[in-house]
Every structure is written in C-alpha cells, then in structure tokens.
Amino acid sequence: MQTPPPPPPSSSTAGAIVPAGPMMPFNYNIYEAVQPHWFYCKQVESKSVWLPFSIIDSLQLEETYNSVQPDPENVIVRTDGGRYDVQLYDDRQRTAVFWEEEPTEVRRCTWFYKGDNDSRFIPYSEEFSDKLEAEYKRAVSTNQWHRRLEFPSGETIVMHNPKVIVQFQPSSIPDEWGTTQDGQTRPRVVKRGIDDDHDEVPDGELPKVDHLVFMVHGIGPVCDLRFRSMVECVDDFRNVSLKLLQSHFKKPLDDHAISRVEFLPVQWHTALHGDATGVDRRIKKITLPSTGRLRHFTNETLLDVLFYNSPTYCQTIMDTVAMEINRLYALFMKRNPEYTGGMSVAGHSLGSLILFDLLSNQKNGSPSLSPSVFPNAGGDAKQVRHQQLDKRGKQFSKIHKNSKRLRLDLSAVLEHLGLSEYKSTLDDEKIDIESFLLCTIEDLKEMGIPLGPRKKIAKFVKERLSKQVSLVSGESGSHFYTSYANELNWTHISSEAPDLSAKNLPVANTISSIHVDYNYFAVGTGQVSVVYHSLDFEPMNFFALGSPIGMFLTVRGLEKIEETYQLPTCKGFFNIYHPLDPVAYRIEPMIIPDLDLKPVLIPHHKGRKRLHLELKESLSRMGSDLKQGFISSLRTAWQTLNEFARAHTSSAQLQAELAIVANQIEEQEKHAQEEHKMTESPEPLKEDEPQVKIGMLNGGNRIDYVLQEKPIESFNEYLFALQSHLCYWQSEDTALLILKEIYRTMSIHPEQIAH
Fold first, then answer.
1. Rounded to whole angstroms, what are the CA distances from 43 to 111, 232, 751?
2. Pick the CATH number of 411-467 from 2.60.40.10, 1.10.150.50, 3.40.50.2020, 1.20.120.660
3. Given Cys at both, which of 38, 144, 196, 619 links 61, Cβ 3.0 to 4.6 Å?
4. How far apart are the C-alpha atoms of 458 and 493, rounded to whole Å?
C-alpha cells in the first residue's frame, strides 16, 4: 500500500489539523502560531458590531505593533485611506480625522465566538485570547484533545479537536416561574483566526488619491430610508466606486496609472439646528402636540428648505458649507502635502442648490469667465448688485460727513472698548476710523483678532450705525441701516435693527425690522442676498444629484440661462437624476427652451440598457412591424378585389368608391411606414444627441443625465418616488458616470464590460 503524501501546508493559520480517522499514521502535532487580525468596534443600529480592518490596514497595524518604537505613546497609524487614525499603545482607539465621531475600541484579535443572535463572529478580549492560545498550543503539542477548560469568569471551553471548539456559559436567564435553571446554555462555536472568512475582509485602499470630491447633503439629519448619516452614505458611495475601479478600470489600476477617488462628506444640518442658532428650541415651542412624529419629521427635514430661503439662516447654511469645504480641503492637504490631483464638488437635493449658489458667486480674476449671474433681456444682475452697493456706500459717506460729532479717533475708540493692544494690528493694515467702520467680521478674523474683541467691535459698529441712521428721516434710513449692516455681516450679532417708524406705535406693539435684501433680476426676485465665501480651490466638476436647481431658479423669476454663462471657477456641471425622483428638475430646457432634447440616458454599469427597457422598445418596434405588415396585406387583397370588380362590372359609381377605399389604404400604409422609421431611428439619434452644444455651463457638453429605472420601479412610479430620490448613494451607474468624467480629464477611459 502506497503511503499517501502529507497534505500541503495550508495558508490557514488555524493551527494543526487533526486526522480524520484514528488509523492515519501521521503525527500532526506541529504547532503554528495564529495570525492576528485587527478589528474595531462600531455602533450599528444601536448595537456594538466588531468589524475587521482591511488586509492592508491590519498588516500595517501588526507591523507597527511588533516594531520597536522610541515614543510609543505618540505612535499613530493611518487607516481607511487616511480617514481614521489608530493609536496603538495608549488608548488603543480609532478616531475619525475629517468629521466628528465617537472614538471606537481597537482590538488585536486571534480567537472568536459566534454570537447568540446572529452568525457574526465576535472577538474575545486579547487577554482571554492569549489564554486560549496557550491551551491550544499545549493540546497540539501533547496531542491531547477533548479537554475541558474552566475559567474564573464562568465560561467553559471544550477543545474536541482543532476544528471543533465550543464554549459553554452558565445560564442566568430565569424561566417563566422566575427561577434560574442550573446547568449550561446552548454551546457557542469558537473559531481560531479569520482565514476562513477572507471574503468578508476588504483588501483595503491605496494611500495615493487621484481626485478629491466634497459631497454636500440635502435636507434632514439622515440621508436614506435606513436613517443613516451622511458619513455612512458617503462610505457606501466610496465603496461602490472602489468596486467599479476594479471592474471597469482594471488595466490602468494594475498598471498603477490610477489609484482611487476620495469622497468626503460636508455636513451643515447640525450647525443650523444646534444650540448656536436656537431655532429648534423656538420651533418646538410653537409646534402643535398632535401627530408628533410627523411634525418632528417636518421640523427636522422639510423646514430646511424654508430656512434656506430665510436671509438669516441662509447665511448660516452658506457659511457652514463654504467653511467646512475649506476646512476639509486644508486638512486633507496638510495630511497629503504631495497631493497634486484635482477637486470636485457634489451635492444631493438641497445640497446641490447650495453648491450652485456658492459656485455662482465665486470670484474669478478673468472677466471673460465671469459674465452676469443670470443675464437676461432686462439687464445684468451683477451690475444691479454693484449699483446697489455703490448707492449704499454713497449714503454712508453722506451720513458720515454730516455727523461730525461721530468722527472719533481710532485710538480713542479702541481705548474706549479696552482693545488698545490691537492698535498696532490695525495700523499695520492701514486702518483708519472710516475703514474701521467698514470692516466685516471676516476682515477682523483675517487680521487675527480673537472672537471676544470681534464681538465688542461688532456691537460698537452696530451702535454707531444706528446713531448715524437717526440723522436720516423716514423708513429709508432704517432700510439703509439693515441693508448696509447685512453687507458688513454685522447682522448676526442682533436680529433687530432700529426702525424709526416704530416710535409712533404703542409701547406694547413691537415689529420686526429685519430688511430682507435680495438680488434683483429684471423678471423677478432672486436669491436672498448673503455673503458668499470664496473656496480655497477651483473645482473641476460639479455633480448635482436629484437636484431642484431648475425649479428654484424658475421660482426666483429666472426665465432663461444665457448660453454664454458658466460658473466662474468651475468648468464642468452634470445634472444627474432618477426618472422617478420627485425633487429633481432639468437644466437644459432653461438654456435652450426651443429645443426638445431628451436627457442623456446613463448606461447600465454592466453595459447596454436594462432588459425591461430593451424589451419595451422591442415590443414597440414589433407592434409597428405588425401594423405595417397588416396594412400591406390589406392593400394587396384590396387591389385583387378591385381588379376583379373592374373586370365584372361597368358601374362608374362602384369604381369610384373602390378608388376612394384604395386611396385610404395607401395613406394608412404611408403613415405606418413613417411610424416604423420613427421607431427605428432613436438608437442612431441617441449617438448624435450628446454632440449637441448646450451653452457653456458644462463647456458646451450635455448637462442632464438620467438613470435607468429598475424593472420593479416601472410598475408603480408613486410607490418608488421617495426611494428614487435617495437611491444615488448606492447607485453604481451614478458612481461610474462620476468616475468616467473625473478620469476623462486624465485621458483614462473605462474598459468595455463583456455581457
């Protein structure tokens, strides 16, 4: 009998293998150390779930853990593509870098048990795992199994063989009589190492980044039907993009021509609804108690649209988005100083409108790139805006000249405010008393003046302006004050400006004197006038997902976007939407109203159209063919009947009637042929449609891109309307289009996927 060769050494680190039968002559008591894998704990739906680090991150953590570090307390390992930092030696925690998140525990794991409620394996503590590993090593070395191990904590581990290890624990759950049963519960499966579950462990992200995309959320604190946060939804979108890179950009990825695209979330909802504004507290006081959950949902989500149309809260939202994008950009560049790639922005729902308004008001040194915001037949909106500012500046100068008693020395003002120490700072900037009164909050911040002194200066300027306004009679003075204070960004210090007309009202009557300033267009009232901060970079592309931009521009009174208009600092603009999305609107008809142009159909990520759409077109084409064939057969039969009738009758009236019917059949045949041509023509036409020049908003290229609905969605449009507005975070087709447009600038194109 030939001795079978021993099994090859497995890549598994599950230790020695016990013979399947007692008669096998080989000794397998060779101990192999277990390969640790690093895990982190995360709260998922109010439950603690242990998730594995990627293979790349775990190997890096293990290498750092086993190395000698001169200053171990300050050793930090970057994981998850640089979005998280792990402190190995001190707190053993994983902390988020770019957003606020509770630190989570990190564990070096070797032994696991299967949970009671699901099939997920949960790691033991490192101390307990070390004890199990020592007992396992003893069992392998001595080849003694079926050992019962009792632990002080009450757990009992039974090692039947290297592949069958179970845990028993005392039962502490009382029965229906209130007594605790003696004995032990159902055994738990115990596992050593993770190699059997390699499919569940991601490979990891490369540290190099090709492109950076900032994603702004829409209304509400959650972003999908699973009530997940913006961070979780962007994580999903990033994971989808990584999978598409492996499937559609495999060759350039293997050739190291590309690496990956980083997506970072931009959050503004907390700043609006936090304690700083106090708006939630005030809204809660006036909210009716009935239908509490519905009203809470309305206050948390739908009111964001109204807040954005409020001059006070619109400024809060715009400040938060712009400063958060700049903060994330600065932090990313600080951590990646060698980065040379481009940047883009993406917005979902209301977030896309916020970005559009922000990008529309960016400043560019080149006048040719910055035409009027939305030019129309009535004139230039920017010009109107500048005329308003010039008018206010002249009003202020006139008031200031007529108010000699308010001409104060800058040194005396600072001494009065107790801020003399900042005189040198103002002198360095050549600031006198007049320019001091014109300084904005941002100006003071850029000069390095702290928050406390800025508050004092803001209060002083507000009071001086109110005194100067008292020299102007009538309502125009109050309106000038509020408009001018709004321009200087002082109005957030106090929401009430002096209203001179209020002095004639009874004491008990108080009125709001906030003067809402708007950008005026010739066709109507535009967006509320707020201060738009400059971004610290020029984005290459702007991706709007499920966007209501077109509707808002129309409601603001805009009839048409000029073909020459483009965003001042952003060359690319893509309006991506689901056909059933109730919030999404098109952009192209606002640029070329007379051209009936269908949106670009986004291809399925696996190639071609979805099957049900092809079937629908095939049935339409088949119906046209059948109709044409039926009419042709009818004409042939009628011609035969007509010839037979002519040969057997001489009635002129009958022949005339036959001729009329023959003409009708001929006309129907021509009509059927035209319909047949129309059903055959869409495919080649769609190849030509993207070549149509649609203004300069996207550099002359197409703007509107529509996703293909799923087969089940086509049965009931209303049922899937809400879901379609939230589908973009997990949409492979959306992610692939964004990747295509990003890598197109690098002359890299996706590979064709075989069906």
1. 21, 12, 38
2. 1.10.150.50
3. 38
4. 7
User: Distance between CA atoms of 308 and 125, rounded to whole angstroms?
Assistant: 49
For the chain, which residues make up each domain, given as ranges? 37-192, 211-363+538-597+692-746, 411-467, 611-676
* 721-747 pLDDT tens trace: 777 888 899 899 999 999 999 999 999
Question: In angstroms, what CA-CA distances link 525 with 241, 324, 351, 491, 516?
Answer: 40, 29, 21, 22, 11
Q: What DSSP line would sit under 36-89, residue for residue?
A: -EEEEEEEETTEEEEEEPPHHHHHHHHHHHHS--SSGGG-EEEEGGGTEEEETT
Q: What is the pLDDT of residue 682?
A: 41
Q: pLDDT: is 474 or 262 the higher one?
A: 262
User: From edge to edge, which strands make up the β-sheet containing 342-348?
Assistant: 261-266, 211-216, 342-348, 541-545, 572-577, 704-706, 600-601
3-state helix, strand, coil in the chain (%, to 5): 45, 15, 40
Tell me whether residue 10 is one of the annotated catalytic residues.
no
Q: If you ran DSSP here, which 8-state letter would residue 181 be given?
A: P
Cα separation of the two ends of the chain: 51
Rounded Cα distance, 703 and 544, in Å: 10
Report the alpha-carbon distance of residue 667 to residue 675 in Å, rounded.
13
DSSP class per residue in 630-699: HHHHHHHHHHHHHHHHHHH---HHHHHHHHHHHHHHHHHHHHHHHHHHHHHSHHHHHHHGGGS---STTT
211-363+538-597+692-746 fold: Rossmann fold (3.40.50)
Catalytic-labelled residue, pool 349, 370, 483, 724: 349
Instruction: Answer whether 106's CB lies under 8 Å from 86's CB.
Output: yes
